[in-house]
């Protein structure tokens, strides 16, 4: 389970909205000066706050510090879906157009069409799976007032 600390900002029936601090590991990296993430970290972009809806069966109130969790396999499956499927669509459509002996502009147009169709399929799948409780982050535990991180 991948865990992240946050603070409850809103309470719903069976769920809470949690504010988390986006962190970067750029301060510990030796090449942060030559990296895009290092530049964004210095500009303060990594310090933005994220809001996550997490399922919860605890009695929480706004301002409570909590630990939310997501199963590792969900993160891996989601990453493959979001990154790999559009690339497969792009290359698959380009290879198909190439096999059909189309001219280069048509191959390029086919590649972008494959990327667009695969991206639309990812969006459609994501909208269908958005309300599935098995795919949602969950509140693992509430933190004591003394052990809460500052946000």
Tell me what you see in this structure:
This protein is α+β, with helices and mostly antiparallel strands. It has helices at residues 36-43, 72-99, 104-129, and strands spanning 2-12, 15-21, 49-55, 65-70, 138-142. It has one domain. The chain is built from three helices and five strands; from the N terminus they run ββαββααβ. The chain has a five-stranded antiparallel β-sheet. Helix 2 (72-99) runs antiparallel to helix 3.
Give a short synopsis of this structure.
This protein is an alpha+beta fold and 151 residues long. It has helices at 36-43, 72-99, 104-129, and strands at residues 2-12, 15-21, 49-55, 65-70, 138-142. It has one domain.
How are the elements arranged and paired?
Layout: E1 2-12, E2 15-21, H1 36-43, E3 49-55, E4 65-70, H2 72-99, H3 104-129, E5 138-142
Helix pairs in contact: 2-3
Radius of gyration: 21 Å
In whole angstroms, how far apart are the ends?
22 Å
Instruction: Outline the low-pLDDT stretches.
Output: none
Total domain count: 1
What is the residue-mean pLDDT, rounded to a whole number? Answer: 84
Discrete helix count: 3
Alpha-beta content class: alpha+beta
Strand coverage percent: 15-25%
Largest sheet: 5 strands, antiparallel
Structural descriptors:
3 helices; alpha+beta; 151 residues; single chain; 5-stranded antiparallel sheet; elongated; 41% helix
């Amino acid at each position: 389970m991948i865990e992240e600390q946050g603070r409850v900002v809103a309470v719903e029936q069976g769920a809470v909205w949690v504010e988390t601090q986006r962190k970067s590991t750029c301060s510990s990296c030796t090449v942060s000066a030559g990296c895009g993430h290092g530049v964004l970290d210095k500009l303060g972009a990594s310090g933005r706050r994220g809001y996550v809806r997490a399922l919860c069966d605890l009695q929480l109130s706004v301002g409570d510090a909590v630990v939310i969790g997501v199963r590792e396999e969900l993160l891996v499956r989601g990453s493959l879906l979001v990154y790999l499927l559009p690339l497969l669509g792009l290359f698959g459509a380009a290879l198909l157009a190439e096999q059909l002996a189309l001219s280069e502009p048509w191959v390029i147009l086919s590649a972008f069409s494959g990327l667009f169709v695969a991206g639309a399929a990812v969006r459609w799948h994501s909208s269908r799976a958005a309300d599935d409780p098995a795919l949602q982050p969950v509140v693992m535990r509430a933190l004591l007032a003394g052990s809460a991180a500052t946000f």
